[in-house]
Design a protein that fits this description.
The longest helix is centred in the last third of the chain and has 18 residues. Helices cover 42% and strands 16% of the residues. Bound molecules: 3-phosphoglyceric acid.
Length: 212
């Protein structure tokens, strides 16, 4: 189930104000070596953006983020999302997503949340907001207890601490907005986005040469 996440160590967390930006952004990220997009339901444009990328850029792995309810889950799947990220753990959403063969990445930051996710068979969990819930130190402590679980920290990950996060083997991938800030997307600053993506990709390749 998690096979598809392999090689995608950097996950841009994207909010589109307009779905017209979906393909230009997909191309800008890909030019910088990032071939995965988490398109969040923080805007009305999410489903249309997911659909365009899924249809027009089949080499990019597209998923939905900030999925808060079943309606969004179903819309994301219909649009072509392959993985579903939620800020927190909601059993109903996870169970429904698993039934639909989607890769489910709910946010879990406490031992109890992690155990609830494990009981549904999950092995990769979002850890959000990472900087607030203890960051690297917390992930290391949790990883020592929950063998076999991997985390995707987001919230406070940047180019400055990316290497430190990626050097922890129990981190599946790092997510964040630092290369896809609203001002960059809305200002059509796609060259800057490519540059920031390339910088992140270079760090990823340096820390994990075997994955990339
Ligand atoms: C997320 O949902 O993963 C966060 O909004 C990303 O946080 P960041 O803006 O600190 O990268």
């Amino acid at each position: 189930m998690y096979e598809m996440l392999k090689g995608h160590g950097i996950v841009p967390v994207i909010k589109f104000d307009s779905a017209d930006d979906a393909l230009p952004l997909a191309d800008a990220l890909a030019a910088g070596g990032i071939k995965i997009m988490e398109i969040t339901y923080r805007s009305e444009a999410a489903s249309s953006a997911i659909e365009q990328v899924a249809k027009e850029r089949p080499d990019i792995l597209v998923g939905a983020g900030t999925v808060l309810n079943l309606e969004q889950l179903k819309a994301a799947e219909a649009a072509g999302a392959k993985f579903i990220v939620s800020p927190g753990f909601d059993e109903t959403i996870v169970v429904e997503g698993l039934k639909r063969n989607l890769v489910m990445l709910p946010g879990c930051v406490t031992p109890s949340e992690i155990m609830a996710a494990m009981s549904l068979g999950l092995k990769v969990l979002k850890f959000f907001p990472a900087s607030v819930y203890g960051g690297i130190k917390a992930i290391k402590s949790l990883a020592s207890v929950f063998g076999g679980i991997k985390f995707m920290p987001t919230g406070g990950v940047t180019a400055d601490n990316l290497a430190e996060y990626l050097s922890i083997p129990q981190i599946q991938a790092c997510g964040g907005t630092w290369m896809v800030k609203a001002n960059l997307i809305n200002g059509a600053e796609f060259e800057t986005i490519t540059k920031l993506s390339q910088e992140a990709t270079d760090i990823y390749r340096k820390i994990r040469p075997d994955e990339t």
